[in-house]
């Protein structure tokens, strides 16, 4: 009986941890709506002259806006995973499947933004591209994505 209680307590703690992680991720997404999440490519755009920087950020924002249905699908999948995790009987395969869907949607959004960033970058003069590349290297050296 003692092992059963320990297993039950360990399971409850694990479930609370996972639910907290999912809720934290969801709240993080809700709070960061205005941020374009393109990692080092977005940061590298800060190195551009003001006019090109504005055009670059507008291009990324438009791409992100076009991907809004995919962003919403990712959020929905994360909420679904949280709902599944909160059930009295948790189906780990279902939770993981929902998280897989969320990850796939997140990756699709990131890929679209990165493709647009690269398409913009190739139109820049070599000196501006070199500045963007240097900013990306600095970000990567600090552990950024």
Describe this structure in words.
This protein starts with a helix and ends with a helix. The chain folds into 2 domains: 1-33; 36-144. Helices cover 80% and strands 0% of the residues. It is mainly α and 145 residues long. It has helices at residues 2-31, 40-44, 50-66, 68-85, 92-121, 126-141. α1 runs antiparallel to α4 (68-85), α3 packs antiparallel against α5 (92-121) and α4 packs antiparallel against α5. Residues 32-38 have low confidence and may be disordered.
Q: What structural class should be given to the helix and strand makeup? A: mainly alpha
> Quick one: how many beta strands?
0
Computed Rg: 20 Å
Q: Ends: how far apart?
A: 48 Å
The number of distinct structural domains comes to 2
Biggest β-sheet, characterized?
none
Strand % is: under 5%
Total DSSP helices: 6
Mean pLDDT, to the nearest integer, reads 84
Order of helices and strands: HHHHHH
- Which percent bin holds the helix content? over 70%
Uncertain spans: 32-38
């Amino acid at each position: 009986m003692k092992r059963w209680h320990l297993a039950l307590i360990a399971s409850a703690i694990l479930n609370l941890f996972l639910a907290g992680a999912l809720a934290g991720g969801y709240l993080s997404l809700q709070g960061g709506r205005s941020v374009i999440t393109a990692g080092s490519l977005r940061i590298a755009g800060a190195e551009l002259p003001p006019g090109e920087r504005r055009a670059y950020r507008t291009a990324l924002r438009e791409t992100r806006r076009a991907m809004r249905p995919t962003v919403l699908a990712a959020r929905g999948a994360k909420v679904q995973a949280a709902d599944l995790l909160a059930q009295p009987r948790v189906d780990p395969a279902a939770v993981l499947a929902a998280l897989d869907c969320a990850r796939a949607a997140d990756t699709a959004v990131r890929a679209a933004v990165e493709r647009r960033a690269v398409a913009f970058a190739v139109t820049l003069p070599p000196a501006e591209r070199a500045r963007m590349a240097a900013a990306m290297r600095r970000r990567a050296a600090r552990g950024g994505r």
